Amino acid sequence: MKRGDIYLVDFEPSVGAEIRKIRPAVIISCNEANKYLKTIMVIPFSSKVEKIYPFDVFVSKQESGLDTDSKLKIPQMRAVDKGRLKRYIGALPEEMIEETEKAIKLHLAIE
């Protein structure tokens, strides 16, 4: 499990406005944490790309290996137990990880 890897993740049970169901997500936590901790930080994908906010990241199916164009939902970033990861899908290219980092900084108001 490495930073930038895309896995199917089981987000159930969810509460309120949290992201739901089994869906792809990208691992965003650092590789050192991924190696030692029982949890990892992930950002889920959504296939609803009609509206892309400045803190979302559009990811084409060619760049991700997903079946459809999608977006990373930065506001839904969360820590999950590694047991929630169901299947490896692929990995984001480095330039997409850098774009994701910029969107995270924007969402968290980090300069």
CATH class: Mainly Beta
Overall body shape: globular
Radius of gyration: 13 Å
What percent of the residues sit in helical stretches (DSSP H or I)? 10-25%
> What share of residues are in beta strands?
35-45%
Largest sheet: 7 strands, antiparallel
- Kindly give the count of domains: 1
Number of helical stretches of at least 4 residues: 3
The CATH architecture is Roll
| Sequence stretches where pLDDT stays below 50 over 5 or more residues | none
Q: What's the β-strand tally? A: 7
Amino-to-carboxy terminus distance: 28 Å
**Class from helix and strand fractions:** alpha+beta
- Mean model confidence by pLDDT: 96
Order of helices and strands: EEHEEHEEEH
Per the CATH scheme, the topology name is SH3 type barrels
Would you write up a description of this structure?
- This protein has 111 residues and is of the alpha+beta class.
- The protein contains 3 helices and 7 strands, in the order E-E-H-E-E-H-E-E-E-H.
- The chain has helices spanning 31-36, 61-64, 94-107; strands spanning 5-10, 22-27, 39-46, 56-59, 70-73, 78-81, 85-91.
- Strands 1, 2, 3, 4, 5, 6 and 7 form a 7-stranded antiparallel sheet that branches.
